[in-house]
Fold:
Amino acid sequence: MTTDREREMGLASSLRAFTIAEGIVMIVLGILALVFPVIASAWVTVVVAIAFLVGGLVGWVTNLSRAKRLSRWHCFWRLVVSTLFLVIGVWIIQQFSTGPMGAGLQVAALAFAVGIVFLVEGLVATIVSLSHTGRSGWGWGLANGLVTLILGVLILSMKAWGLLSVLGILVGISFLFSGIDLLSFSAQFHADEE
Structure:
């Protein structure tokens, strides 16, 4: 018969093993994305298209189910947004079926959109951090804003071929750091529970 303490130790050991396995998978996926950034970028674009499709479908269902509780204009505009999600999702998927040129255009367009988001986010983060210089840690906010701003400028200044690899590189770096985090900090955290 096992005690509560033994069950807890077994659970902590299982969590630690799972965390280490997850970290290894993330590192491998990160390295693959960095080695094959164009392929990784295409996969990211397909995932975004699927997310748009799912979001559009869910939006239609939830808006129609709540139509009696929403104003007509509110419901109408929410359905417009849900329809836009569906159209964009279908359009991205359709572009992938037209061949490499259509797929490349979609990947580049999404990378360009990411560049714009980074540029705006970097500007906002920089302004916000500079308006809070009296608080401790404001320098980290400034560093984050400047790095994000620089990344946005770099992405927006890239030629078409560079845009094809941006998303894959970003995903690769993110996965790589997530994997390292899982192997170092998270695995150690679960080891402390044992």
Q: What stands out?
A: The helical segments are 4-35, 37-65, 72-97, 100-130, 138-156, 160-193. Residues 160-193 form the longest helix (34 residues).
